[in-house]
Design brief:
Helicase_ATP-bd; 14% strand; RNA_helicase_DEAD_Q_motif; eight-stranded parallel β-sheet; ATP-binding; single chain
Length: 474
């Protein structure tokens, strides 16, 4: 902690006011450590040993929250937590940049809950998230972190009943976790609800908030929030949109970064590619799932149709697979996630709805059945495994049509990844069984499409309503 203070004082002493637009109105605090943040090697400098905190208590966290962290199995702070928490406890605005799976939720959740413990009030904090699933996950994490001091949270997202949400807001929760569209609906339509007494604003996955065109809604929300507040902006990547949001909503913030590059994955993740013809993708998918049998896996596809088809294919062959995509109802999406996290199903076939923000601790393998079109999405997909210091495997299918996309991904990562070894003779033994399952899956897809009818029209190119903005199109 003294090292962090020293860097903070140095930043303030050398730059009492922004010297140019290049400073982006933020001081910088960079970590040389990776995802661990607690290894002795990370403290390889002239600083005293105390510069690398080993416990949350050393960061200044109070005992009740330390107890909650211990109950959750948090043995030591991650890099982003070790850097961000002490500064946040000093009442500074924070911009936190760290790769997915590095513990960002606790990095902002612990200071918020500690402030609430010291000064209890209703509508104390607002956490904004881009998607419904992420909002629910943050809500669960904050409930757990605040369990020892009886923190009350309310999750306010689209696709759910507004009346029951209004009742929840009427009970004056301490913390609101919301998606922007539904929050603005309540600010405009729910009598007696306002955020004039707000103490903390947190924007999680800020770049994604802006990717989903929440910008105009965020502007309206910021106008009704008090100026005297603390603001935390957390993201895995930063863009020009995020920079402009930072200038509009933060006051003299400190930037905390534990990523050494724009595109970074954790060191405990083993990454491979599998170069095979497109027509054999299904066969190799079954081969890999047999290789990793008994382990939990997420299979990422590019479209809703392919997600559903692959799920039908795997079920026909006896795998416990469940689909997750944007055309499922909100209750069905939550049910799918619940079955996967509880391990009653060990394979999740998903679009990029599941690529970002969701913390599913037991994911062992990520299979990119369809490559994502951009490198940032690849980072978030493979970040579903190897979380919180655990190891994981990511294998990406690369067909004759995907070579250029894969080269761009490797270019963004700054390295060439090895090819996964799969003996063709062993794989092609499965061809006949997979062929029969493919025919069965096609028949089930026809029935599925007939039942769905025209429901998919809302995922066209037209503008989505405010209530649908927090439901990703994938």
């Amino acid at each position: 902690m003294p090292a962090i203070k020293k860097r903070k004082v140095t930043d303030e002493a050398t730059a009492p006011a922004p010297a140019s637009a290049e400073d982006n109105d933020a001081s910088s605090v960079s970590s040389q450590s990776g995802d661990e943040g607690t290894s002795p090697e990370a403290a390889n400098s002239d600083e005293k040993p105390t510069s690398t905190p080993k416990t949350f208590k050393e960061l200044g966290v109070i005992d009740p929250i330390c107890e909650a962290c211990a109950n959750l199995g948090y043995k030591a702070p991650t890099a982003i937590q070790a850097e961000a928490i002490p500064l946040a406890l000093q009442n500074r605005d924070i911009i936190g940049l760290a790769e997915t799976g590095s513990g960002k939720t606790a990095a902002f959740g612990i200071p918020v809950i500690q402030s609430l413990f010291q000064s209890p009030s209703s509508f104390h904090s607002l956490i904004l998230a881009p998607t419904r699933e992420l909002a629910y996950q943050i809500g669960k994490s904050l409930d757990a972190l605040g369990s020892t001091i009886n923190v009350r949270t309310a999750v306010i997202v689209g696709g759910m009943d507004m009346v029951s949400q209004s009742i929840a807001l009427g009970k004056k929760p301490h913390i609101i976790v919301a998606t922007p569209g539904r929050l603005l609906d309540h600010l405009e339509n729910t009598k007696g609800f306002s955020l004039r007494t707000l103490k903390f604003l947190v924007m999680d996955e800020a770049d994604r908030l802006l990717d989903l065109d929440f910008g105009p809604l965020l502007d309206k929300i910021l106008k009704v929030l008090p100026r005297e507040r603390r603001t935390f902006l957390f993201s895995a990547t930063i863009s020009s949109k995020v920079e402009s949001l930072q200038r509009a909503s933060l006051s003299n913030p400190l930037r905390v970064s534990v990523s050494s590059s724009k595109y970074q994955t954790v060191s405990t993740l083993q990454q491979y590619f599998l170069l095979r013809p497109h027509k054999h993708k299904d066969i190799y998918l079954i081969y890999l799932l047999n290789e990793f049998v008994g382990q939990s896996a997420i299979v990422f596809t590019r479209t809703v149709h392919e997600t559903q088809r692959v799920a039908f294919l795997l079920r026909t062959l006896g795998f416990g697979a469940i689909p997750l995509h944007g055309q499922l109802s909100q209750s069905s999406r939550l049910a799918s996630l619940g079955k996967f996290t509880s391990r009653s199903r060990d394979i999740l076939v998903a679009t990029d709805v599941a690529a970002r923000g969701l913390d599913i601790p037991s994911v062992d393998v990520v299979l990119n059945f369809d490559l994502p079109t951009d490198s940032k999405t690849y980072i978030h997909r493979v970040g579903r495994t190897a979380r919180a210091g655990k190891s994981g495997v990511a294998i990406s299918f690369c067909t004759q049509y995907d070579v250029e996309i894969w080269q761009r991904i490797e270019g963004a990562l700054g390295k060439q990844l090895p090819e996964y070894e799969a003996a063709k003779d062993e794989v092609m033994v499965l061809a006949e069984r997979v062929g029969e399952a493919q025919r069965q899956a096609i028949m089930e897809m026809k029935n599925f499409d007939e039942k769905k009818g025209t429901r998919g029209k809302r995922f066209g190119k037209g503008k989505r309503s405010r209530d649908e903005m927090d439901q990703e199109e994938g």
